[in-house]
Amino acid sequence: MCTRLPDSEILQLSGADAVPFAQAQFMNNATALADSGWHWNGWLNAKGRLVAFFALVRADAQTLLLWLPAGGAAALASSLQRFVFRAKVRLDATSSWQAAGCFTPPPAGTGDIVIDLPGEDAGSRRYLWLHQSGSGPGIDESKASRWRLADLRIGVPYISPGQPGSEQFVPQWLSLDRLHAFDLKKGCYPGQEIVARMHYLGQSKRAAFVLSGPGEPPPAMTRVTGDGDTAAGEIVWAIGDSEGWHALAVMSKERTEGPLRLATGVAVQIDTSQPDLRPADA
To answer: Which InterPro entries match (predicted)?
Structure first.
């Protein structure tokens, strides 16, 4: 019940300063992780907008793995390299690590890392299996689509550097508090002041919702409008299924009632039939 995840990539940070480097750059507390521990995390620009979203995994005291569900490992490594300076850390977007998604516990070997995630339905589980290349499953497109849809339903934003949606949203607009993906007490990192100010002043008027509609999935940053063509939100990412598509969207909290449409005129609805945006530890 496993498939290689064809869109995802892994960036490896290694060296004596790997953890301190991650702590200084990323929005969650890298120093809190034990070996084989993980959390959702991301890299923000100076304006507090999310450049890339990933699961940060501590393989050992000098090795961190960034699982990027939407890819972009090489682009992220290139951007982060500008901040390495004299730090003893190596950024490797071509490491031997690969990722597989499993709907039953995987046959993990020695040295592999397995991350337990919410499944397709409330109470079910699935497993992200990080392993060395050559030891995992091949690509099963049906299972890979199921995996992506399960990610979308818990609110995982598929955002990678240089792609539509990157550097557009602050963490609160994406409801990343539900995934425990940022830490307000860990100290300074790029964009930290914006995130803290929005949290403590309660100024976030936007949040993440799951939308659905007919036809082909809309591209990222497609506008969602409400009554009178008023701006209501933007699509973060979308995936199709046999009945149309589902999308993660950042929406104005005041514009979620009444009819909604894409900028193309396609009618959409907020998907209340799914266990939308359950916390990752539900």
So the answer is: TrmE/GcvT-like (IPR027266), YgfZ/GCV_T_CS (IPR017703), YgfZ/GcvT (IPR045179)
CA distance 186 to 111: 29
CA 238 to chain centre: 13
Tell me the two tokens of residue 273: 């039939």
Domain of 145?
2-153
Strand partners, 18: none
- Residue 8 and residue 143 in one domain: yes
- Same domain flag for 95 and 231: no
Q: Are residues 119 and 223 in the same domain?
A: no
CA distances from 165 to 101, 145, 159, 251, 263 (A): 24, 20, 6, 14, 16
Which residue has 């100076």 as its token pair? 46
* pLDDT, position 229: 82
Q: What is the DSSP string of 203-257?
A: ---EEEEEEEESSSPPPTT-EEE-GGG-EEEEEEEEEEETTEEEEEEEEEGGG-S
Q: Which residues make beta-bridge pairs with 93?
A: none
| Residue 149, pLDDT score | 94
* CB 236 within 8 Å of CB 169: yes
What single-letter amino acid sits at 106? P
53 and 145 assigned to the same domain: yes
pLDDT at 257: 82
- The dihedral formed by the CA atoms of 253, 256, 257 and 259, expressed in degrees to the nearest 10: 150
CATH number, domain with residue 62:
3.30.70.1400
- Enter the pTM of the model: 0.93
- State the total domains in the chain: 2
The residue whose two tokens read 């120093």 is: 31
What's the confidence (pLDDT) of residue 41?
98
Q: Give the residue ranges of the chain where pLDDT is below 50.
A: 274-282
In a domain, 225, yes or no: yes
Q: What is the pLDDT of residue 273?
A: 53
What was the pLDDT predicted at 278? 42
CB 270 within 8 A of CB 255: no
Q: Is residue 162 part of a domain?
A: no
